[in-house]
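re: ur question from yesterday

yeah so i grabbed the chain u mentioned. its 201 aa long if i counted rite. heres the sequnce exactly as i have it in my notes:
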Amino acid sequence: MDENNHIYPIFDRMLARRDKEELLKQRGVMVWFTGLSGSGKSTIAIALERELHKRGVLCRILDGDNIRSGINNNLGFAEADRVENIRRIAEVSKLFVDTGIVTIAAFISPNNDIREMAAGIIGHDDFLEIYVSTSLEECERRDVKGLYAKARKGEIKNFTGISAPFEAPARPALTLDTAVLSVEESVGKLLELVLPKIQKK
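ran it thru and got these structure tokens back, copy pasting raw so excuse formatting
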């Protein structure tokens, strides 16, 4: 036992990941959506969850609403807080993935470093990065939550795409442009990618 921080590891006595995956008859995997606000990340994530659920796959969606209203409700949008937001999300996601649950995350996660950190925590072999590449012009035209208008007026600071940069993924597992693809078409492409990864061999 570490006398300094009172940590007493029990990992060697807990059931292993393979035991959980055998019970669920599926493999845990992380499907991580990145893209601008309004790009369609959450819409596609919800549709993917429903299609996987129909196929008997246990899933868990994590997005800004359920994370920032709970575990991360003490964080703002400054750079350090954004990094900590993603770090905590990745740590929670790792617990789900290690339990055999298909975990679907929808977060702007605006640069490669922050997404690489998440992949490193969760495990690169379990991490599928999905780039929802819908253009800034299209996202701003939609402005579903009225955030772009506020950002243009200077009412929201550090808003990705307006006053803060977004870095496109270098090598995403899949790219989806919701200005071109319907939700059904996007989910179809996702199922082709995800189903082989989660099926127990």
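noticed a couple things. Strands lie at 29-34, 59-63, 102-106, 127-132, 174-176. also The longest strand covers residues 29-34.
anyway ttyl
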